[in-house]
Structure of MarR family transcriptional regulator:
Amino acid sequence: MARPTMAIDDAGQGLDYGFLADRIGFLLRMASVINLAQLARDTPDKAHTSQRMSVLALVAANPGTSQVRLSEALRLSRPAATLAVDFWQERGCMERRVDPDDRRSYGLFLTPAGEALVPLFAEISREAEVSLRDRLTEAEAVELRRLLVKIID
Amino acid sequence: MARPTMAIDDAGQGLDYGFLADRIGFLLRMASVINLAQLARDTPDKAHTSQRMSVLALVAANPGTSQVRLSEALRLSRPAATLAVDFWQERGCMERRVDPDDRRSYGLFLTPAGEALVPLFAEISREAEVSLRDRLTEAEAVELRRLLVKIID
DNA sequence: TATTGTTATACTCTATAACTATA
DNA sequence: TATAGTTATAGAGTATAACAATA
């Protein structure tokens, strides 16, 4: 039985994806790459990367959370979380407040400058989301989200 | 109406994902990160990264293809494709053959050493694929693949 | 002993700009 | 002029190991 000829992508101009065509993991990465590229195009300040926006959004939704919990939620190493928090703190958008109950850790909080960025980032990521969903019906988008959450949970 | 409390991830320990929970793009990235981590764990030689394995697999399936077509199919920049081909060529797994019809470009081919890696990589990526699909029914995996191809195409 | 966070280090990935060679 | 590929450069992301401070 012949492999179904799969033009995953017009840009591929008929390249055969071999065993990669059968790998959901590979397709996830390609879809994510496409979305990250769109998001980067939509973001005026190129230092505001997807990961850094995610960090800011997570602190916004969870004021006082710690770097460890941040790194676990985004599946980053602790050093990566340190650097991301450093980035926002240096720009006056995030604060580390000492936790009197556990002086090893910090509570993370947004400054007013950081809070002001949240709705902007929500809007930018909504735009990239629209170009993603444009290729799906509403029902398909709902189903895709459900399946992704099932994988991640 | 309150946002549905979404524990995307146990590791998040109840962190609220804020607007990220509504972004398929974010969920795609998280799912891909999980899969890439699993793939890296399953790969004995840590220099054999996901991207490099993809490059080898694509040349295996398309002997004689060029670096430009490779970069388009994997959505890499041309310099990134150059570096990936350099990597495999330095290790004796890939050859650049001059194309007599267009001496600007090379035809890419695997050496016997490169060919020997293809089934190994197919097996490694199949293992990571199994842990991904473990969380889905067969019908869900089929549907997820269909939706991802729709996004990528 | 274990945990939180930082620093040092190294490697991967990625892109843009400028370049050479060829078409 | 346009295309294929390379080099130079820089920045982003990532991880491990070793460390300090605290629990």
Q: What stands out?
A: Chain B touches chain A through 68 residues (CB under 8 Å). The longest helix of chain B spans residues 112-133. The domain at 49-128 of chain B is CATH 1.10.10.10 (Arc Repressor Mutant, subunit A). Chain B is about 60% helix and 5% strand.
